[in-house]
Amino acid sequence: MSILANDFKALWRDIADDALSAVRRVGESGWYVLGEEVRTFEAELAAFHGVEHAVGVASGLDAIEIGLRAAGIGDGSVVLTTPLTAFATALAILRAGATPRFVDTDEQGLLDLEAVQRILAAGERVDAIVPVHLYGQVVDVPRLETLAGTYGFAILEDAAQAIGARLGDRPVGATTLGAATSFYPTKNLGALGDGGALLTNDAAIAESARQLRDYGQRAKYEHVVPGLNSRLDELHAAVLRSAMLPRLGAALERRGAIANAYLDGIDHREIRLPEPAAPSTWHLFPVFAPDADRRDALQQHLREAGIQTGVHYPILASAQQAVPAPEPGTTYPVAQRLAETELSLPIHPYLPNDQVAAVIAACNAW
Ligand SMILES: *Cc1c(COP(=O)(O)O)cnc(C)c1O
User: Fold this and answer.
1) How confident is the model at residue 268, as a pLDDT?
2) pLDDT for the residue numbered 136
3) Distance (Å, whole) CA 328 – CA 314
4) Which of 146, 202, 207, 222 shows the smallest number of beta carbons within 10 Å?
5) What is the per-residue pLDDT across 57-115, written as a single tens digit (0 to 9) for each?
6) Is the pLDDT of residue 1 over 80?
7) Taking the model in full, what pTM does it have?
8) Is there an atom of ligand 1 within 6 Å of 92 CB?
């Protein structure tokens, strides 16, 4: 492959000096867990995103579980979410002790809010909703909040793919319980390993999340809830803070420029382009083929042109063995069709213009 979906070697060439001096700083400090690096990174991340609190944890999966548990969602709770997502969304709901209830998506791949409204209006139990800002596209959370006002449920946003995303001038997670994000290396703010954070304006949620990530301690040796060991390491925090976060603004701009080039340049009657209703942070650039066979043919055509692509996601979370089997006859027709027809084109900050042009030319020549 000559055009990569992600180019981590180019990333390292760019950040090596900053990352190595961050590592040296941590090593020399003699303090490796929950210290000054995590505190400073949390403050800088919260400021970048535009919320009061960021709580660093071990992964995006944990950030969702901890956010739900901090809000009292657990045994017996029912949590609505989308089946078209990274499996971690559903797994976090299960790990919190709750039951995931899947709802179909719209044509962009986001939770279908009409369908959500029908479930609520039918009087079914819903304790929380986890909307996923899939591909970096933003779910209409204000509309969900209006429903929450009528029916009473908590909202925790899965912003693993949407750090820095806004709806109007409002950062995601700012008015709900919060937004969970991930520092998995491919994400828009990736670490050199695993990490995540809960972003929130709710001081009580932040406080509870800080306890849950650290054995449920309120103070040293005082365990008030059965928590986790889900601490963000000083090393990861230092690298994120000194090497990654300072580049995030420019990286998001570059993703936007590549997306605009694809939107302007790709023109093929069998390729449907994404149409985000609100500005996307373009973690992924999804295109949609007419059917599964044509999607596979497009992927093969691009592979032959040296272009690496991905599928997000080939199997719905609702169809995974690890979740309880749905009622017989339950289907998610739109999400299922997107799972069969979606293809993610390369979009990362180190993708040069000639490669963007080559992807467009290869698509149009299909
Ligand atoms: C990556 C991702 C997660 C999980 O994050 P990890 O840090 O890998 O645990 C959850 N939800 C979505 C939508 C993701 O893309």
Assistant:
1) 98
2) 98
3) 21
4) 222
5) 999 999 999 999 999 999 999 999 999 999 999 999 999 999 999 999 999 999 999 99
6) no
7) 0.98
8) no
d(CA 198, CA 59): 10
Read off the DSSP letter of residue 231.
P
pLDDT of residue 277: 93
- DSSP-assigned beta bridge partners for residue 132: 158
- Kindly report whether the peptide bond that precedes residue 313 is cis, defined as omega within 30 degrees of 0: yes
3-state secondary structure of 49: helix
β pairing state of 222-223 and 78-81: unpaired
DSSP annotation of 84 = S
CA pair distance 38, 244, nearest whole angstrom: 14
Q: Is 60 in the pocket of ligand 1 (CB under 6 A)?
A: yes
- β-partners of residue 340 are none
pLDDT classification of 351: cutoffs 50, 70, 90: very high
* Top mutation candidate among 91, 158, 236 for ligand 1, by most atoms within 8 Å of CB: 158
Residue 240 DSSP label: I
**pLDDT at residue 326 in the model:** 84
What is the number of alpha carbons within 13 Å of residue 310 lying toward its C-beta? 13
Q: Are 184 and 190 in contact (CB under 8 A)?
A: yes
Vertex 356, ends 354 and 362: CA angle to 5°?
A: 100
Ligand 1 site-directed mutation target among 182, 183, 188, most atoms within 8 Å of CB = 182
Query: C-alpha 163: how far from its chain's center?
Result: 8
Centroid of ligand 1 to alpha carbon of 200 (angstroms): 18
- E strands present in 229-306: 285-288
Closest protein CA for atom 1 of ligand 1: 160
Please write the tens of the pLDDT for every residue from 126-183.
999 999 999 999 999 999 999 999 999 999 999 999 999 999 999 999 999 999 999 9
Q: How confident is the model at residue 328 (pLDDT cuts 50, 70, 90)?
A: confident
Ligand 1 atom 5, closest CA: 60
Q: In ligand 1, which atom is closest to the CA atom of 64?
A: 10
**Does any ligand 1 atom lie closer than 6 A to the CB of residue 89?**
yes
Strand duo 170-171 + 166-167: pairing: antiparallel
Rounded distance between C-alpha atoms, residue 361 and residue 359, angstroms: 5
